[in-house]
Amino acid sequence: MPYASTAAQLAVTSHFPGKKPLLISGPCSAETEEQLLATCTQLAATGRVDMLRAGIWKPRTKPGMFEGIGKPGLPWLQKARELTGLPTTVEVATPQHVEDALAYDVDVLWIGARTTVNPFSVQALADALRGVKVPVFIKNPVHPDLELWLGAVERLAQAGVADIGLIHRGFASYGNTEYRNAPMWHLPIEMKRRLPELPLICDPSHICGNRTGLAAVAQQSIDLDFDGLMLESHIDPDNAWSDAKQQVTPQRLAELLDSLTWRQ
Ligand code: PEP
Ligand code: MN
C-alpha cells in the first residue's frame, strides 16, 4: 500500500530523549574491557556526556578488518553503565543484536547507515522491536536518499516504536572529498521539516573522518538547531582498532565541547 511520508501518518508520539543538547560519546568500537572502561569513566569524569556509545558489532566495508568484539563486549558496557551511572547506546543490525543488547541493559539502540539502506534489514529490526519499549536512533542511509531514511522511520513507527531519533552522519561519495561523508546540510534540514517532532542529532566524527574538522561541523549543527551530538572518543585514538583518525581523547572531547558556542 503506497503512501506519502509525512509526519502526520507516523505513530511516533514521544520526544526521546528530552535533554538538549544531548551529548553522546564513546569509542567507535569496544576493543577490550580496559579500553572501554577507561574511556567511559574518563568521559563521565568530564561531566559533559549524557550517554555512552560503543560499537559491539561493526559493519566493515572489507572482510578481514576488525568486525567488532561481539557479544563478549556487552558485559563490559554493562559495567561501564554501572560505574558511571550513564545510559548506553549500541548499533544493532540484526534481530539477534537487539535481543543480545537488551539482555545486557543497553538503554538505547541505533541503526547504522549501512543498515538503514536495506529495507529488509530495517523491517527485520522493526519486527524484533515490536512490543519492546526502547528508544531507537536511525542514522541516515549511506547515500543521499531521504525517502529511504523516512521509510526506516515509518517501519519502526508502524511496529510501535514510540521513541525515535535521527542521526545525521553525512553521505558517501566517490573520490577524495573534503569530508569522509559530505554533510549535505539541506537533507537533514528537510528531514527535520518533514518530521519536526523527532530529535535530530549530528555525528561529526563520521562526517569528517578526521579530528580537525570536528568542531566546525559540530558548530554548524548547533547553529542549525540540531538537538545534540554523537562524537567518537577513545583513550588512545591513534591506536584504535577502527576509525583511528577521527576519534579524540575524553579530555580533548571536553575541550572541543567547551570551544563551541551553544544556543541559549
Ligand atoms: C559508527 O557509529 O561507528 C558507525 C559505524 O557509523 P555509520 O553507521 O554512520 O557508518
Ligand atoms: Mn566509527
TrEMBL record:
It comes from the Bacteria. Its EC number is 5.4.99.5. It is an enzyme of class 5 (isomerase). The keyword Oxidoreductase does not apply. One of its GO terms (biological process) is chorismate metabolic process. Keywords: Coiled coil, Transferase. GO terms for molecular function: chorismate mutase activity; transferase activity. This is chorismate mutase.
